[in-house]
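explain this:
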Amino acid sequence: MDRNSNGIPDDCEQGTFRRGDVVVDGALDLSDAIQILGFLVLGNRLEGCPDAADADDDGQVGITDPLRLLRSLFLGDGPLPRRMPAALTRPTITSPPATSRAAEITKARRRP
């Protein structure tokens, strides 16, 4: 919804969106990834804040976003990035990323 008709959805301006929740139902699930893919492949409209579709928070909506969401949901890659206030900068990564649960299982199966 855009109550002030400025072309920016209200949930984007107010910072109330949840990253990955493009269906705007309060849950992160397969339907969100499908809607991002529909936007990317078919040109479908996103229901909520476009920034919610940027699941990996790299500043763009691309194929990595539905993949990041699916990895978070089904492979245990951890939660999606939180929305940061505009006044803050992105944090500097000082430690290596955590290994996904799927990678741990694969590595364990390879051991004799």
